[in-house]
Fold each of these.
Amino acid sequence: MRSIGIRELRQHASEYIRLVEAGESIEVTDRGRPVAMITPIKKDETTIERLNREGILTPGNGKSILDHPPLPALPEGPTLSEVLAQMREHER
């Protein structure tokens, strides 16, 4: 990390901004005492990047869900709608 005085920064501001854009941090001093830090702006992490980094999200393997074979047919019986209707009747 580079350390520069206020006068030096004022005289060569463009040069130091280019260094910061390139990723370098610069400490600014006033009479040898640190007073400020110029650092590059960090790229905002997207929600997907954060979830992936935290292990909450698992990246796909590139295969489509349509590549899987269809599920076997369900056995004969009432439909889900019929089961729900029966459950609601019993609650009354």
Note: Residues 6 and 12 are 10 Å apart (CA to CA).
Amino acid sequence: MLFKETDLPGIGKKFSVITGNKEKVAVIIHFSGKREIYFFDKNDFDEPACAFSLNEDEAAQLGSILMGTYFKPEAQDEKEMFMKNLVIEWVNVDSGSCMINKSIKELEIRKRTGTSVIAIIRNNETITNPSPDEIIKVGDTLVLVGNKEQIKRFFETFYPKCNLR
């Protein structure tokens, strides 16, 4: 990608980018905060095929989308706090498990550990949001969600001899 920065006296700066696909985009950032974005056809870098303007907030939002970090400021802190406490764990049910041939309800997984079974992977098929009456079978993979303590409690309850956690 080719990148060029040019000072525009009395206006601001111009940034021109030519991508690996030979497409050109130019961005003019005014001292006022206004942004003008110009798109050019591959065969004509002199006259823009399309142009639009953004204010500072719109430009910041578009930039975060392009960077893959789009966020809504008022909800971001809540999402980060929620995600820090969220753990998703995959648990393989082997032939020695005490859970075999018992339902989620019978095992009282949520009541005893606080974790929720959000899916069961069985024979290359996924049962999402399984019913409490779903019977756990040998070879199933349980997908659990909870916080770290709840996941730890799950292993202490259903895999007490397992010292991995």
Note: Strands lie at 2-8, 12-18, 24-30, 35-41, 44-54, 87-92, 116-122, 125-128, 141-146.
Amino acid sequence: MPKQIKIIIGDLSLKAELFDTETAKKIHKLLPLESMINTWGDEFYFEIPLNMPLDETATTDVNIGDIGYWPPGNALAIFFGPTPISNDDKPVPASEVNLVGRIIDDARVLKGYKKESKIFIKAL
């Protein structure tokens, strides 16, 4: 069963969920997390203290609102629009990510928060 989480950036608070996968469960155990945000197009990513390989959910086919774990950077990635390698409005990660969750609210509002530097993620 998915686990409910909250993502906080600046004055914005978004409801999200982590899926029932091994990688997502390990991420949930790390909560709460606070990190500096890196931006790549309309993607936020940030390193977390977790080292996991690609799993059965690994893909480059992601959608706005998806949350992925990117093994090469030990990072969580939040997709809210096109990235530098997108051909249209759909996000494309730099390489495969494990799909670990999704934002329940409208992730596109994150476009207005690209100047923020910190992200907080906590369990609900």
Note: The radius of gyration is 13 Å.
Amino acid sequence: MNSVTIQMRQKGIITLPVELRRQYQFNEGDVFTLIDLGNGTLVLKPATSKVAKYGDEVGRIMAGEDVNLEEMLQLLNEERQEYYKDHYVNP
């Protein structure tokens, strides 16, 4: 587990380091859940999983295309394999 120091700015704004935003593909507008563990310990985690996000993205792309269920499942499988490779094989 890595640790990074960040500073709270005006109105409680904090900025996630660019390295983490790139690593986890966080984008402007992403929603997070802040969990208070007590004693000033906080955990920040994405409110939606990347798998759900990718599924929504594929659905939007396919919405206007003439694609059958088998083709869509193949595309989703390819996305899943790419996600696995990016996050578990070559993190």
Note: The chain is about 45% helix and 15% strand.
